[in-house]
Amino acid sequence: MYAAVLHEYGAPRIDRFDEPQPTGDAVVVDVTAVALSQFDVVHASGQHVIKPPVLPAVAGNEGIGRLQDGRRVYFAGPLAPYGSMAERTLVRSSNLIDVPDGVDDETAAALGNSGLAAWLPLSWRAQLVPGESVLIIGATGIVGRLAVQAAKLLGASSVIAAGRDPAALERVRELGADAVVALHEESDLIRAYNSSVGAPVNVIVDYVWGRALEAALHAADTGARIVQVGRAAASADMQLSADMMRAKSLNILGYATYHVPHAVRAAAYQHLANLAADGRLIVELERLPLSEVEQAWSRQRAGVRSRLVLMPGL
Q1: What pLDDT is attached to residue 231?
Q2: What confidence tens digit (pLDDT) does each residue in 66-125 have?
């Protein structure tokens, strides 16, 4: 079969790869759509905290496909050396989630880890209550834009979107943000938050870390929940004031999708797919044939504003 194969750590290239064979609880999935993410790029580089693949291996960590009986599924974590960026892959049956009718394969693929990393930090980790206010740091990214919409769908009274790109912030307004905060490195971020946020916020979801989150804590309400999801900032460090932690009784929560129970992930994914099918959740994506994986990889490394979805059948 044809696949995006890693012969060395870095970028894959299209090549022949051995066909997967079902064994034990592992089943073969005919892949129809694969979302390319920054996680794929970093993992394939061999520099991620998760153990890198043993080479040669097929790139890709999630996708949409069909089983031999026609069942359409979302899958994550294919069994090495197989990845999702291939005509077929090998996945444990316990890792499969049925895809609802009404949503196309490419949207279903783009909703995988991106959708879960937008929805579950709010619904499952922060336990957002309708009527609470939410601040999304890193709202101009693919996941952040979904998180803004998720907060609204979950009943947030107001959603404040923080990000660096002015044009992207305007797009986030169109997607439902009530206010925006421009994150410029040279600016007074505490003042920027305070001038845009208004009343203190109940929940902060952070995809950036560093100064952006450090300053945002000044806008947090007493007892606020801060959910840390990603680190887009250059620095892995930030200053956390013990006085502020006590004075505001802050709750700082880490989040990783692989810690979420499978049943919770499955229910959230299917709900997101139904929202997208109904037009209540906008998923911005671009379809590309799998044969263009090298170009897509370069674009992902440079930064993209819509999810690139590779289609083996194109």
Answers
A1: 84
A2: 999 999 999 999 999 999 999 999 999 999 999 999 999 999 999 999 999 999 999 999
| Cα separation values, 140 from 106, 206, 238, 264, 305, Å | 21, 12, 21, 26, 8
For the domain spanning 114-258, the CATH number is 3.40.50.720
Determine how β-strand 96-98 pairs with β-strand 72-76.
antiparallel
- The upper half-sphere exposure of residue 170, i.e. CA atoms within 13 Å in the direction of its Cβ, equals 2
pLDDT digits (tens, 9 = 90+) for 136-164: 999 999 999 999 999 999 999 999 999 99
Dihedral of the CA atoms 243, 245, 247, 253 (nearest 10)? 180
What are the start and end residues of each CATH 3.90.180.10 domain in the chain?
2-111+283-311
Q: Please give the CATH superfamily to which domain 2-111+283-311 belongs.
A: Medium-chain alcohol dehydrogenases, catalytic domain (3.90.180.10)
For the full predicted model, state whether its pTM sits above 0.90.
yes
The beta-strand segments (E) located in the chain are 2-6, 13-16, 26-36, 57-58, 62-66, 72-76, 88-92, 96-98, 133-137, 158-163, 179-182, 201-206, 220-228, 251-254, 285-289, 307-311
